[in-house]
DNA sequence: AATTCTATCAACCGCCAAGTC
DNA sequence: CGACTTGGCGGTTGATAGAAT
């Protein structure tokens, strides 16, 4: 079904995307956008061509992609649009929110086209027979003989996450303990290890599929929560926040009717080890992840990063004490040096809550999330 | 149980249009 | 105006899960 990993062309990886690659791409694009697909893989730390990254994002990873069964209305729309537009899949996809041109194209070739051909082969009398199934109904019946006409609504998508996806293996899932969990209402995905939290009674179906399969769910931010196994965490995260791990908060993943502000997070414990966090992060300004050229030219070493931790505010441009080792332009180095890339997030004191999610602020008042960059202070 | 066949769909390829220099 | 880059599109491939034999 999927191409094997490991294909190699000019040192670039091909074939099936690995979960780690997906996470890198998601992390980069959600944070910085797709400003240049060709350059993106280099800065996202991916050994893929830009085209492959774009395809993966557009057809698979971007938010609001609807997967799984097609509703009757959707199939009707596809058939109708195909009659008028032909194989202009992107134009057809534009009329079907959440569906990609590639998926529609596949669905057409594997289901609809054959069904239409089959029904056109049927003698006319049979077409007008008393059971009177429409052409579409016949297609649907063939595709799903057990329940052909019971189609989910747009919000009742039956999740089906494909093979190279982000789902943890069963063995990984089974290693999850309640001791490392957070409040059930929130669905979190551990950042540095593919470990999920305790299963929630409210979280029906596949925990992993929901955030990616529902219309109004998306990865909103990272946050920290208790996590005991630090083996797979980066040293910086470990140092800053042990015994915590980084998690992604998925808005509304398990209940689309619950507004974000009502999502709950585990009560903060007394003697929170985070309080010992001592990073000196002082300044802030809004969110453009990559500064304009004028911003770049006005940026000096004085608003560079800390040499010791290589941290950059995630949602803000943050200044920190300048390091003698941090030469050149703070922004250009992590983004434009081939050896530097975003590696993980860390938590550190931060006073401007404007750009943080309510859930995050509630749980970590006074803290913000920062991206860690490798090699920022090593570049000469 | 083993083998063969079929359906599926993620990913790749080549081409084209638009934008930039 | 032409060369080049980039993003986007549609056709096609090919591994594999599941069904059929």
UniProtKB/TrEMBL annotation:
Q: Name one GO cellular component term.
A: nucleus
Primary location class: nucleus
What is the designated name of this protein?
A: Uncharacterized protein
Give the location in the cell: Nucleus
GO molecular function annotation: DNA binding
HTH myb-type domain location, by residue? 9-61, 62-116
- From start to end residue, where is composition biased (Low complexity)? 125-137, 163-181, 284-298
């Amino acid at each position: 079904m999927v191409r094997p990993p490991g294909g190699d062309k000019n040192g670039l990886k091909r074939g099936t995307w690995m979960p780690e690659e997906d996470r890198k791409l998601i992390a980069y694009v959600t944070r910085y956008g797709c400003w240049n697909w060709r350059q993106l893989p280099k800065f996202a730390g991916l050994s893929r061509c830009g085209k492959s990254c774009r395809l993966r994002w557009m057809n698979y990873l971007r938010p609001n992609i609807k997967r799984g069964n097609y509703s009757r209305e959707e199939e009707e729309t596809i058939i109708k649009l195909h009659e008028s537009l032909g194989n202009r899949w992107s134009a057809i996809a534009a009329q079907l929110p959440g569906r990609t041109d590639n998926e529609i194209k596949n669905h057409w070739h594997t289901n609809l086209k054959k069904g239409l051909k089959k029904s056109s082969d049927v003698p006319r009398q049979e077409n007008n027979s008393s059971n009177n199934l429409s052409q579409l109904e016949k297609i649907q019946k063939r595709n799903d003989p057990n329940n052909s006409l019971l189609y989910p609504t747009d919000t009742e998508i039956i999740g089906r996450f494909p093979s190279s996806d982000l789902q943890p293996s069963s063995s990984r899932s089974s290693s999850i303990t309640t001791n490392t969990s957070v409040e059930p209402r929130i669905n979190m995905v551990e950042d540095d290890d593919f470990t999920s939290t305790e299963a929630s009674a409210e979280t029906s179906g596949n925990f992993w599929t929901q955030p990616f399969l529902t219309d109004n769910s998306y990865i909103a931010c990272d946050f920290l929560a208790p996590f005991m196994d630090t083996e797979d965490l980066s040293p910086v995260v470990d140092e800053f926040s042990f015994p915590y791990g980084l998690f992604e908060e998925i808005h509304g993943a398990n209940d689309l009717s619950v507004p974000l502000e009502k999502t709950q997070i585990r009560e903060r414990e007394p003697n929170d080890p985070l309080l010992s966090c001592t990073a000196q992060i002082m300044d802030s300004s809004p969110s453009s992840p990559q500064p304009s050229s004028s911003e770049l030219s006005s940026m000096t070493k004085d608003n560079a990063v800390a040499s010791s931790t290589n941290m950059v505010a995630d949602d803000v441009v943050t200044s920190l004490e300048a390091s003698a080792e941090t030469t050149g332009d703070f922004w250009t180095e992590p983004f434009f040096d081939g050896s530097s890339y975003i590696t993980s997030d860390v938590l550190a004191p931060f006073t401007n809550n404007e750009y943080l999610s309510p859930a995050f602020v509630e749980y970590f008042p006074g803290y913000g999330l920062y991206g860690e960059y490798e090699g920022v202070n090593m570049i000469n």
